[in-house]
UniProtKB/TrEMBL annotation:
It holds the Pfam family Peptidase_S9_N. This is S9 family peptidase. It comes from the Bacteria. SUPFAM superfamilies: alpha/beta-Hydrolases, Peptidase/esterase 'gauge' domain. It comes from Micromonospora sicca. Belongs to the peptidase S9A family. Residues 7-415 form the Peptidase S9A N-terminal domain. Residues 480-694 form the Peptidase S9 prolyl oligopeptidase catalytic domain. Keywords: Hydrolase, Protease, Serine protease.
Amino acid sequence: MEPSPVPVAKRVPTERTHHGDTVVDEYAWLAAKDDPETIAHLTAENAYTAARTAHLEALRAQLFEETRRRTQETDLSVPTRKDGYWYYTRTVEGQQYGVHCRRAVRDGETAPPISADGAPLDGEEVLLDGNLLAEGHDFFSLGAFDVSPDGRWLAYSTDFAGDERFTLRIKDLSTGEVLADEVPDTFYGTAWSTDASTLFYVTVDEAWRPNRVWRHTVGTASGEDVVVHQEDDERFWVGVELTRSERFVVIDIHSKITSEVRVIPAANPTGEPAIIAPRRQGVEYAVEHHGHRFLILHNDGAEDFALAYTSADAPGDWTPLIAHSPGTRLESVDAFENHLVVSLRTNGLTGLRVLPVGGGDPYDIDFPEPIYSVGLDANPEYRTNEVRLRYTSLVTPDSVYDYDLVSRQMVLRKQKPVRPGPDGRPYDPADYEQHRDWALADDGTRVPISLVCRKGTPRDGSAPAVIYGYGSYESSMDPWFSIARLSLLDRGVIFAVAHIRGGGELGRRWYDQGKLLAKKNTFTDFVACARHLAKAGWTAADRLVARGASAGGLLMGAVANLAPDAFTGIVAQVPFVDALTSILDPSLPLTVTEWEEWGNPLDDPEVYAYMKSYTPYENVAPVDYPAILAVTSLNDTRVLYHEPAKWIARLRAVAPQGDYLLKTEMGAGHGGPSGRYDAWREEAFINAWILDRLRRA
């Protein structure tokens, strides 16, 4: 006998009125995180989900074991050179977290030292062992990990709850002593002064907006720290970093559509920050230091961005370096003494363009596969003619290359090992095939889809499939390799990624056409991709599961309402499904900074009506929904746990014939469980549910 769905405690509904519209929220009380009834409800939901999925326990164990078996658990990253040391991270079989190490560079050593079996390098120095730090905690995450320019100090920060409130500490690497300096409630981002006497860091306001940059003197109490910049405009957030040249501390100030950058000479950490260019509404720019100039990547009259420069001594007018080219989105620039490397994307693919300094024509680095993802990896040294890059595709494991910018020779340093699967056969990319297909959206726009499947998978509509999507914040879902995904592919499942509007795959316009009052394009694009997969014979609607997370979880809720017949199941992880309620509340984390992404429904009745017409929680209807699995985390500060909790409750009330499950991590944050084995178990849980849905179809 199957367990009954979790009853929802009866509370007085909450009413809100905006622009003459009154909304009743029966489940608003679930937002009270400290209410014992809330915790009891989430606990009961977990118990119900566990009971409903108990028959999948053996499959979950099998999927976990397949991931573990295929993973080289004791492994070592390719060491990165910085001054006189090689820096790297090791993992050890049976341990959840990485061990961060360094080893001195030896005479005549030019290539990074690598141990084939992942064993420690001879002469290594352990800087930080995540397993020791995590002892006694259910969750552990590193925020900062920043070695000072002289190699003596390590600034690091830890989070043991998942709420991304980090405690910052400083370790003396010469003695192993952790200093008394301790700063609670910090955010990501640190920067050292040249002499390593001063550390800059960031804190957040009550709405979780990074709003202050601080200056800390090593060896003093945090109460003596000085605010270097405070951002009072609630649309903007701040970050801090040290340039690769180690000449300047950069304070980045951004809203969704406007930028301002200030710099402090790293040799004069108490100096007043100088503005590169005052903020102008709608103008975004980023700064990289290069010799006598600052490089400026900007969109001033350049939709897909252009590259310019200005004087480092007296920033002023911008001199063009790379003109705007519509359709080629310039994403970032990395400066080295003799070369610039521009990361870009065109025709839906990432790429790298090299600009020799002082002569020589620019050139693009070529890559062999039709679908891939490439980008620069860690490159801390400024005076170098060699760069580290990372390459992957849907069938190619993560690969680390060193590229000589002069000879144009590329050397593979390491490809992520994939050990034999359950059948004992080594992994062979030739056993799989990847494709690029295109769907036609309602307005005639062609939407790219990336697909991977086992070779020989039928194209007659009989194959089961998973379609993944995101479509927000100009974040691109570029092809990536996944060991856990092999367990699906080897069971005949096709995996597809819908590159829908709202992402950045096809440039800035692709993003602009999926935000604000064009947001519904994101949802209709995804439905068009799903229907195309069925029409083209890749799969069938009753053999297709949709999956998305965070803003991709909003996508999942929206398409569930828009086209419930297009899917047999939906996985929504940390889903932003009560978007209107959240964006109406300026006290919630991120709300005000999000208004330039979604619109401001508080002040604009058109935005209010538009958001209300698509936000998932508001539009639950008495229809036949596909089976839904919602996964969330109690300590998530980005998408609060109560959004999916309320959504599942309303689905059960309005469409009670459906199959809805809620799983809440009671000690994690936005990214879910922190340890690698816990993350593998979470993925095994989701994939077992997906396979079960596909079997039932």
